[in-house]
Design a protein that fits this description.
It is an enzyme of class 3 (hydrolase). GO terms for molecular function: cytidine deaminase activity; identical protein binding; zinc ion binding. With about 170 residues, the chain is an alpha+beta fold. About 30% of the residues lie in helices and about 20% in strands. The chain contains 5 helices and 6 strands. It has a 6-stranded mixed β-sheet. The protein is globular, with a radius of gyration of 16 Å. It binds 2'-deoxyuridine and zinc ion. Zinc ion binds next to helix 4.
């Protein structure tokens, strides 16, 4: 995919987005277009690494970052947020998804995930795979290493034979 694929936000509205970002502490999205270098996938991974710096993980000491790209070019980041009551901890991916959904964004193009582990790509846990699936089967998951190398899969690749709730009329 070309870097230009990211420029889905019409040029005339980008300044507006940027102004909106700078003028508001409430809104948490950033626009990828103003951070773009060579490839959007690498940019998304770099944003996930930035988010990893905010991880709150005193128990596992295992920081994770995520950066979620919407189909209209916005990025919502997340980090893991642990708790003394361990089952209340949140994964980075779910923090990013919940931030996006709570701001009105449900259409996603990709999510990048990162950790400090150098010898394997970080992969979303089973719970997060189901959460990602909630918002579509064919969007992209980028699982990275600190050196920016990554594995690219679709959501359904990571959760074959997925559970989908069929609601009876
Ligand atoms: O893909 C993953 C895997 C793990 N974690 C978090 C959960 C917990 O805080 C820590 C150790 O499992 O890493 C994530 O945020 N995302
Ligand atoms: Zn998870």
């Amino acid at each position: 995919m070309a870097a230009s694929d990211l420029c889905e936000v019409p040029t005339e509205s980008r300044g507006c987005e940027l102004k909106h970002k700078m003028s508001s502490l409430v809104h948490t999205e950033t626009s990828l277009s103003d951070k773009m270098t060579d490839s959007w996938e690498l940019d998304l991974i770099k944003l996930s690494q930035e988010a990893m710096g905010k991880a709150y993980c005193p128990y596992s000491k295992f920081p994770v970052g995520a950066a979620l790209l919407t189909t209209d070019g916005k990025v919502f980041t997340g980090c893991n947020v642990e708790n003394a009551c361990s089952n209340l901890g949140l994964c980075a991916e779910r923090v990013a998804v919940n931030k996006a959904v709570s701001e009105g964004y449900r259409n996603f193009k990709a999510i990048a995930v990162c950790s400090e582990v150098v010898d394997t790509y970080i992969t979303p846990c089973g719970g997060c795979r189901q959460v990602l699936l909630e918002f579509g089967q064919t969007w992209i998951v980028l699982m990275s290493k600190p050196d920016l190398s990554y594995e690219k899969r679709t959501v359904v690749d990571l959760i074959p034979m997925p559970f989908v709730l069929k609601i009876r009329d």
